[in-house]
Amino acid sequence: MTDVDEQGRPEPPLTDDEVGTLVGFLDFQRATLRWKTDGLDAAGLSATTAASTMTLGGLLKHLAYVEDHWFSRSLRGREPHAPWDGVDWQADEDWDWHSAALDSPAELRALWQASVDRSRAAVSEALAEGGPDQLALRRWRDGRSPSLRWILCHMIEEYARHNGHADLLRESVDGSTGE
What we know:
Layout: H1 18-37, H2 42-46, H3 56-75, H4 95-99, H5 105-130, H6 148-174
Helix pairs in contact: 1-6, 3-5, 3-6
């Protein structure tokens, strides 16, 4: 049984194996992003703060891309899913951030959730095949492949970093604060 905090986030397990702990922390970070973006309309998801062009909608779309990139594409070796498969990344390497302004809140949330769902399935498949030592099927340019363990740690870091941005953005939108 997973404990849930007052924001509805699953608490990472206090006593579990390595994979359970890593996945628990990643799910907590995912739930933090969901919490920081819940209930906002298009204006709230498009708001910026200070000199940054970063938005909560951009965070949702960027993290949807990052989920698909690391778990579906890198770990499992799959071709990019829509909408990533039609993007000219050389023309705009920040397309995920910029194009979020053209998407509705429902589209952004659905895109992010679908990416998270695919990621969870990809992690389950990789764990069944080789545990956290399972190497990504898509190699880096230098020939190396990160392990599932490395990818999980990287994704925890990615979410934690961006959830700090989400804290500031959400507070600037409606004054909501919290962990």
